[in-house]
Amino acid sequence: MYRVEDKYNCTDGQLVMLQSRMEAVLKPDVNEGGPEGYRITSLYFDDLEDSCLQDTVDGVNRRNKYRIRIYNDSLDVIKLEVKTKRDNRIFKRSKTITKEQMACLMRGECIEDSASAEDPATLFNLAIRTQGLRPKVIVAYERKAYVFEPGNVRITFDRNVRSSGRVELFGRKNISYDFLREYDKVLEVKYDEFIPDFLLQLLETGSMQQSAYSKYQLCRECAAL
User: Which long-range contacts (CB under 8 A, 24 or more apart) does 204-208 make?
Assistant: First the structure.
């Protein structure tokens, strides 16, 4: 199922205010490790033509992003993901992989797949064989997340968005990052078919506007500086 995904650039003040509102009425994400939330680190891939990046820049209606994701700098859980975006709706294929499989993909080698289009490994392997898919940039940030079960609503606050071009270091600790200077905070609102009016009211600040924010694009541009 495609889910709606709306993004908003935030100031520090807006982020603090909105997070305090969410804490009063919503449950925190069950995966959080503590009151400060958790750290997400992703390794993004692109092909020889940088098609994913160019499609994002051009605002192509339907486009894919390929990534490996870990949490709190741990390799205990490694997620392989292909995220398909159509307008402001997303569909994410995700599965857990091993450290050995992660290493293969980072070297541009294929891993075992189910030959199903719903298996992200299948899509990764196809892109590796036909388009030369390779690692391009590491993206990291801290996330605080809240959920509202009716409508499968998930509201996340991401801070300290940063990038590294040292893709060979993915999975290690103490990576040196470049922080985004103006766009290092973002609010994301995701839901299936509807979002309750009371949540829309709580998210209203009077000045915050929806944005076509892309961590991948911004971090690729930052890493190239």
Answer: 205/14, 205/17, 205/18, 207/14, 208/8, 208/9, 208/10, 208/14
